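Archive record:
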Amino acid sequence: MSSEQIAFIVISGIALILILLPLPWHWSARNYGTLLYIGWAFSGTLMYFINAIVWTGNLKNPAPVWCDISAKLAMGLGVALPAVSLCINRRLFNIATMKIVELSPRQRLHQTLIDFGIGLGIPILVMILHYVVQGHRFDIIEDVGCVPCNHLSHCLMIPLVLIWPLLLGLVSMVYGVLAMRAFMKQRRTFSTLLNSKSSNLNVSRYLRLMALAGTDITLDLPLSSYIAYSNLRHGLAPWVSWSDTHYNFSDVNYVPKSLLQEVPGAWATLTINRWALPMACILFFLFFGLAGESIAFYQRVIRRSIALLHLPYRSHAKLQVTASSPQGFVK
């Protein structure tokens, strides 16, 4: 096993734990944008973590159904984080412009449906649309595992798959810039606004959400552009027909790592793709796992755990003291 593979497995395992630590606070606050971020980053990191363990140094196909699922999930993951960043930036913009601080139950449901439509619906839609340009079932790459197959058709591949991360990233960037602009305009009264009865944010949390979304945009746009370029640099095959694209659809290609490394940019693209998810988990933890509310939560958990561990001991000690009373029996 190479040092790169060991590092990926170890760091992915740590990342899976780290991203779950801030989950209780975000769940109680019902921050659906960050909950979707946690869900996508965790599921993607877990998928690549399992694939790295199972397919290290081999090209077998022990779990075809798992490969079907993980290859399709990989397509959604390419869109999911830009979509979730859009959800977060949109919410921050609405708060900064005083549009959704006071929400009725109906308005809250409406905003939640929009968040899920963007952060969950669009990635699922891309996974469904991917079938149109899916040349065969999946590929298995040594050390990486199951990856999706794309039929590079100029008339369908770009609008159905490649354009979505770039489009979502650009829209998210616009919302982020407008949110920051609105925040700077009313920063003196912003603390009062966020401390309103129906808001679960304060200025610190707001700025951390903005920093998270901004960092995602800064990383996602170049990454999406590079992946699109890597897919298009070798040219696009013309679209012939549905039957031509899906001919021998059940085939599975087995690609040794050494062979893929000979293709310019191919191994680099795969490496960036699978490292992006653990890094997203660690990034989220750095913004929220070390925050004041998270540290307070950790302290409460530790205190309760210590109390539970000492409870049997304290009860036993009390019984001994009482039993040694002059009366010689337990009161």
Residues 292-331 form one domain. Confidence is low (pLDDT under 50) at residues 313-331. The two ends are 65 Å apart (CA to CA). The CA atoms of residues 83 and 118 lie 6 Å apart.
